Amino acid sequence: MNHDAAVSKANEIAKDVLGPAARQNDKEGRFSSEAVAALGKGGLLALMLPGAAGGPGLGPRSFAAVTATLAEADASVAMVYLMHMAATATIAAARAGAGVAPTLQEIAAGRHLTTLAFSEAGSRSHFWAPISRAKKNGAGVELTAKKSWVTSAGHAQSYVVSSLAPAAKGPTESALYLVPANAPGLSVAGPWDGLGMRANASAPMTLSDCKVPPELQLTDDGAGFQAMLEVVLPLFNLGTTAVALGLCRAAVAGTAAHLKGARFEHLGQSLGESLPTLRAQIASMQIETDGLAARLDDLIDHLERPRETTVLRVLESKAAAGDTAISVTSAAMRACGGAAFSKHMNIERLFRDAHAGAVMAPTGDVLREFIGKAVLGMPLF
Ligand SMILES: Cc1cc2nc3c(=O)[nH]c(=O)nc-3n(C[C@H](O)[C@H](O)[C@H](O)COP(=O)(O)OP(=O)(O)OC[C@H]3O[C@@H](n4cnc5c(N)ncnc54)[C@H](O)[C@@H]3O)c2cc1C
To answer: Which of 56, 81, 142, 215 is deepest in the core (most CB within 10 A)?
Structure first.
């Protein structure tokens, strides 16, 4: 599979599977197993796996394009996809000797969905500082933790879980572990009923004396933090930026269709023909959306050719994307008036979904705090 084939497959799945079901899945808070099956069958769950692991080895450009395409049809599914991709990269980057080959084979075959279980009730959005601490159990460990939000909870085949290493001396001396869904002691701890992203099962999970054998420890003790920053963060921020772009594109398209289709019959004109204020609003939405697309391209370029400014771009993109998605979908709500407010169209789902990006860790506020410190030459942690 090459880049164009991946994007074309994403378009096909978005049109045939995501689009028709998005409204009802949102309404019912229903996780789309059909979407995950289609992504697996279409080879997209293995998108960035290298050839040696059975994947096409595509890069950040393809990941971003596929994610934005999915988000345009259903951001909940795009979020499931991006969590899977970040977790898969972490599994693929496991320390030497880790026994992850069977999991990677299943991902390559499109039969395995994985996700990240980092955030904890105790340290909230500060995912880099887990409260839970792994306990030595022979050669392996036992994990006990309260994970506050886990996208695809109860639907994934495995979870990449963070915990302080057994002998950790500081709040960031964590390790990452691969926990299969059927591990005794792992359970979904409650329902998911969010304002937006309602169809992605981001429920809390509990680990209770959950035994992890040594071959499923993904990082050395204390190296979890480094994997979070170097492997997960760039992909996660790229993916959430792509989700935001998909939401913005859908908001512009939905608003344009409404302004062209809805009419003032007494004036003999569509809303768009009649009101310059609405044309100005959709123009602003388009400007912000294209600006975000340019920012996404710039981030991709920085990830493809890493340089001094790459870390800053990784931080900036998610902060900006969260704000842009909220701004563009808010403008869409206003431009489409009562029709949007009373749920006659998909705009209010986009508006609700758009609010997730800014509160998902690293939150927009935390990113601004990091960026400010970086600009002032202060240590980030
Ligand atoms: C739809 C959805 C899916 C999610 N999926 C996952 C998942 O799959 N895996 C996972 O691990 N987590 C997941 N999360 C959790 C997410 O990453 C955050 O941990 C969570 O949203 C934080 O919420 P909180 O109420 O605990 O925030 P809090 O930490 O209580 O923050 C409250 C406010 O304080 C601000 N704030 C916090 N710290 C600082 C700071 N240092 N400087 C400035 N402002 C600050 C925040 O920006 C926020 O506005 C998900 C969340 C959502 C909403």
So the answer is: 81
